[in-house]
C-alpha cells in the first residue's frame, strides 16, 4: 500500500467513524458526545493529511519536470 492509498484509507475510515458517532449522538449520553468530539477531531486530522499529501504530490510533479534540451 502506498502512502497516498494509506492516507485515503484513513480519511475514509475517519469519515465512517464520524457518521457513526453522529448517529449515536442522538442518545445524548456523555460517551456519545466524547465519541463525536474525538471522531470530529480525527476526521479533521485525516482531511488535513490528505490535503497535504495532494499538495506535496502536485509540488513534486512540478519540481521534477524534465528540461527540454
TrEMBL record:
Residues 50-59 have a biased composition (Basic and acidic residues). Keywords: Coiled coil. Residues 4-31 form a coiled coil. Residues 50-69 are annotated as: Disordered. This is Uncharacterized protein.
Amino acid at each position: 500500500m502506498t502512502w497516498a492509498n494509506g492516507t485515503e484509507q484513513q480519511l475514509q475510515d475517519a469519515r465512517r467513524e464520524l457518521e457513526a458517532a453522529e448517529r449515536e449522538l442522538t442518545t445524548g449520553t456523555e460517551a456519545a458526545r466524547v465519541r463525536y468530539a474525538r471522531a470530529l477531531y480525527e476526521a479533521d486530522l485525516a482531511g488535513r493529511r490528505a490535503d497535504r499529501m495532494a499538495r506535496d504530490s502536485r509540488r513534486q510533479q512540478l519540481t521534477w519536470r524534465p528540461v527540454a534540451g
